[in-house]
Amino acid sequence: MLVELGHYALVLAFALTLVVSVVPLWGALNGDGRLMAVATPVSVTVFFLVLVSFAVLTGAYVASDFSVVNVYENSHSAKPLLFKITGVWGNHEGSMLLWVLILVFFGALVGVFGGNLPDDLRATTLAVQGWISAGFLLFMLATSNPFNRYENPPIEGNDLNPILQDIGLAIHPPLLYVGYVGFSITFSFAVAALILGRTDAAWARWVRPWTLLAWSFLTLGIAMGSYWAYYELGWGGWWFWDPVENASFMPWLAGTALLHSAIVMEKREALKVWTVLLAIFTFSLSLLGAFLVRSGVLTSVHAFATDPSRGVFILGLLCLFIGGSLSLFAWRAPMLKQGGLFAPISREGGLVLNNLFLTAATAAVLVGTLYPLVLDAITGEMISVGEPFFNLTFGPLMVPLLMAVPFGPILAWKRGDLLAASQRLYAAFGLALLMTLFTFWLWGMERVLAPLGVGLAVWVMAGAISEIVTRVKFFEIGPKRGFARLYGLPGSAWGTATAHFGIGVTVLGIVTSSAFQEEQVRTMRPGDTVNVSGYELTFDGAVPRRGPNFVEEVGHFTVREGGAFVAEMEPSKRVYTARQMPTTEAAIHTIGFSQVYVSLGERRNDGAVDVRAYCKPLITLIWIGCVIMALGAAFSMADRRLRVGAPKPAAKRKQSASVPAE
Amino acid sequence: MTRKQRRLTLIGSAGAVLTLALGLILFALNDQIVFFQSPSDIASQQIPDGQRIRLGGLVEDGSVERSDDAHVKFRVTDTAHSVAVTYQGILPDLFREGQGVVTEGVLTPDGIFVADSVLAKHDENYMPKEVAEALKGQGHWQGGEGAAN
Question: What ipTM, to 2 d.p.?
């Protein structure tokens, strides 16, 4: 009964999204305030209905109600409670429900917090958000209903894919979806601007915090997914240029471009048309990601087993939203007034350069992702585009961008002085040069590119620090006043510097962990020792162990450095009983920012076992850098001038208070 | 600088970046992509020395031999032809005789395929798409198990 209630709530939500798609828009176009006022309460109601439906599905999972097809296929009564709950979105139907839940949640947020938006802009934005919600709710109801029932319920479920039975599933998809789907709001704002034919100051002030919010979650989601793959798959890699990873990376790149161009638009009223176009592109890439994962065109860890009707349906939605918004763009964009001239060497110029490189890099990733699919569809020839392709295309596009990063925030708006900016970066450049030479001295000439990479990372990090220090003239005014001024800096300045510092940290982690990693693959018997980067790993033997829904063979290793005990490590091979599926659980020991990583292969009859051991210097910096970037976005969102619903200046408030009286 | 010059600078730099990106992509597509071959493809055509390829098929029953330092030898077959493969490293969890596998590496002049990566299916419902196609080509595909997605 309860399950039918969940289904019913979903149908009702669909019906209401149709209302919110049409009525407020009609009101906005005809200036009817009562019709526009429909948008907020209906959007909020839709959110609560989808929330009910999500809660019902979660309830069915917790209660192991195997009469529900979706629960039977993806759950098991012996599964720990956490994985019963996370299992809700560990499959196509449930994750789609989470996706839609976040989509309508963002709609409700705009409704509730959008009080200071112009009425017609809010109503139109919510209507556009309603179109997207309606499309995906219909998709769920027509092809992917999670509430289908069995007439004769089975006694036991099929269990969740063991790879997904991990804390990572609790964190990675929700973060990623908030990021992906968060860009729907910027998309809706962009389409609303095109429909209304104007992008005013309110538009720009609103778009940037939403973009920042979505972007920071997407950053964390991607980082979390990468770390999960790193420890769970046992291959020791953290990024595979898998098409589905690329599907999340492309909106991130476009979103990064978007949040930079939104700055220009907000501060200088320039790049309006471009910002609107980027907003459309970014969410289109999110939709493309949904299509790639759910249509069955890919075979990947992430791809859900699907039937073709879903692929066709999503492709239809994809064409409708992308095609529709781009046509609207072509028709209406010329109406948006351009403003704000600037010289090529200026803050705006720097941000344009950022956008050029980021969009070019997005295009390179897009080509690498889609080319094999297109070639297969046209010629039937099967190819794979892997790491070498992306290293050769993405890498060279990132290097000039990273070199330019420290200059951007130092240049003045409108017309900058490159020489003056360079003078403020002498210290950063010196430090970068020093670190480059130091790495050369440490590692010799065997890897020429790596020291340059280290130098580049240090340049970006030191550049971010110089920006803050020179901005408050820290050394000229002395530390006491200096700290006071640091405290007084606007959040957006801290945000920029923090995020730029973070990207430097990530780059440093990538360079050191890939260039200076040491790997040993050995067949080891109890008592054998293998040496990686100065750590001696002794294999002490293997013992069987039993978990809640798996049995495992645990290898015991002792790590020593120069004979002194460092740590014990216990990698294992598991077999999940319900599906009889084996998995590898790597053991990771963190030393400073570096990690020792051990995973087991097949066990031989004579008790020997294949062992793969790595030492990955500074690898954790990759993910720490991502967290720092997201933190930067948070600082920027906390900026008073941007805060959503921030009190307006007194004069303005009086003005807006007088509006109803007119 | 006049308005026109500014616009030209913008268009010029945009053009330069796009040309760079396009050049890189075209060069990499020419050079860095890896073609998928079945054992029959390898038997019927000459593959240039040192060219990376992906080889896919079934792991032949009884062909897996392990030796020290995690070296493993096996044969990949599409039932019409088979190719000997050597690999050093940890095999994927679901690597088994008689199961589908995709390996990537280089064919040596004496006909042995030296693989540096081996991919097996992720779970029991999954057969690498390329392998399924290759087996279909040989007429040995028993569909119906929903295996090829």
Answer: 0.82
Quickly state the pLDDT bin for A414 (edges 50, 70, 90). confident
Same domain, B94 and B124: yes
- B116 within domain boundaries: yes
Query: Which CATH number covers residue B79?
Result: 2.40.50.140
Single-letter residue type at A90: G
pLDDT tens sequence across A306-349? 567 788 888 899 999 999 999 999 998 888 776 667 878 888 88
Helix (H) or strand (E) holding A200: none
- Judged by average pLDDT, the poorest of A462-466, A474-478, A623-627 is A474-478
**Within a domain: B112:** yes
By Cβ distance, the residue of A296, A344, A367 closest to B149 is A296
| Interface mutation target, options B1, B4, B24, B117, chain A, most CBs of A under 10 Å | B24
Co-location of B74 and B112 in the same domain: yes
Q: If contacts are CB pairs under 8 Å, which of residues 42-101 in chain B contact chain A?
A: 54, 66-70, 88-91, 93-94
Please check whether residue A610 touches B, CB under 8 A.
yes
Q: Alpha-carbon distance A222 to A224, whole Å?
A: 5
SS3 call for B57: strand
Question: Which of A212, A186, A363, A192 is closest to A280 using CA atoms?
Answer: A186
Q: Is A601 on the interface with B (CB under 8 A)?
A: yes
Q: Which residue has the higher pLDDT, A644 or B40?
A: B40
- The answer, yes or no, to whether residue A292 has pLDDT greater than 90, is no
- Name every residue whose Cβ is closer than 8 Å to that of residue A624 and which is 6 or more positions away in sequence: A505, A506, A509, A593
Same domain, residue pair B61 and B130: yes
Digit-coded pLDDT (tens) for A71-118: 998 898 888 899 999 999 988 899 999 999 999 999 999 999 888 888
Lowest average pLDDT, out of A87-96, B38-47, B81-90, goes to B38-47
Residue B46 lies in a domain: yes
Task: Measure Cα distances from B132 to A300, A624, B63, B116 in Å.
Answer: 15, 41, 21, 22
Alpha-carbon gap, residue A167 to A394, rounded angstroms: 31
Q: Which of A299, A393, A600 is opposite residue B126, by nearest beta carbon?
A: A299
B145 pLDDT tier (thresholds 50, 70, 90): very low
Domain count of chain B?
2
Please give the residue range of the domain that contains residue B128. Answer: 35-137
Greater confidence (A397 vs A337) lies with A397
Element of type H or E holding B118: strand B112-120
User: Inter-chain contact B35–A573, Cβ cutoff 8 Å?
Assistant: no
Instruction: Say whether both B17 and B49 belong to one domain.
Output: no
This prediction has a pTM of 0.91
- Residue A657 region, left (φ>0) first, then alpha (ψ -120 to 50), else beta? alpha
Does B115 lie in the same domain as B51?
yes
Report yes or no on B145 lying in a domain.
no
User: What beta strand segments (E) does A2-103 contain?
Assistant: none
In chain B, which residues have their Cβ closer than 8 Å to the Cβ of A385? Answer: 29, 32-34
CATH fold for the domain made of A1-165 = Four Helix Bundle (Hemerythrin (Met), subunit A) (1.20.120)
Claim to verify: residue B11 and residue B76 sit in the same structural domain:
no
Q: Are residues B6 and B70 in the same domain?
A: no
Partner-chain contact B27 A343, CB within 8 Å: no
